[in-house]
């Protein structure tokens, strides 16, 4: 059933030395899997910049309120574990943006055939 409430999308930008990419991805993978298996998480994707090696963006979309994200999700211990492993790899501070999706399904599109063949 389609949600009629707005979603929240967090865009996290991480910049590391490109030589640390394998270490970053290794540290991120178990947390990425935990995030994607959270029922309130409707979408998560890791992006990398083709123009700026070492710059990654994590896109997380949540069917949740900002209060829930701050008081429940972001308090989960795996975020602290991730920070401990990846913050030493940062070459600049992490940037976080939060965006609210338009309500309803009119402004959402996903190619199921592409992502889920």
UniProtKB/TrEMBL annotation:
Residues 8-98 form the ABM domain. It comes from the Eukaryota. InterPro entries: ABM_dom, Dimeric_a/b-barrel. Pfam families: ABM (PF03992). This is ABM domain-containing protein. The lineage of its organism: Eukaryota, Fungi, Dikarya, Ascomycota, Pezizomycotina.
């Amino acid at each position: 059933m389609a949600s009629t409430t707005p979603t929240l999308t967090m865009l996290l930008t991480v910049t590391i030395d490109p030589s640390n990419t394998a270490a970053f991805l290794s540290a991120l993978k178990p947390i990425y899997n935990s995030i994607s298996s959270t029922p309130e998480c409707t979408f998560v994707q890791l992006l990398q910049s083709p123009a700026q090696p070492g710059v990654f963006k994590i896109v997380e979309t949540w069917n949740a309120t900002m209060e829930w994200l701050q008081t429940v999700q972001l308090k989960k211990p795996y975020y602290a574990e991730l920070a401990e492993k990846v913050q030493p790899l940062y070459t600049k501070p992490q940037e976080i943006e939060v965006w609210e999706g338009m309500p309803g399904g009119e402004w959402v599109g996903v190619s199921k055939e592409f992502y889920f063949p």
